[in-house]
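User: Teach me something about this protein's shape.
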Amino acid sequence: MKPTDNNPKNRFDNFIRYSSLGFEMMAIIGIFTFAGYKIDQWLKNEFRIITLILMIFSVIIAILYGVKGLLKK
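Assistant: First, the predicted structure itself:
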């Protein structure tokens, strides 16, 4: 354990960093899903294939972004 882990400021900074990371990941997924929905709406697709593709792609991107954020210190 690092000696600076007990510092309340460091714990608060970590809390802010990790909670903002979660919101950023939700934003990535939301934006890509909304874009896919709008593209499907514009193309008048009955089966929302673009929405599905962009949703899966956004989850992969968000996970990679999250892992990158967790490894950065």
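Now, about its shape. The chain has a mean pLDDT of 87. The longest helix spans residues 8-43. If you'd like, I can walk through any region in more detail.
User: That's plenty for now, thanks!
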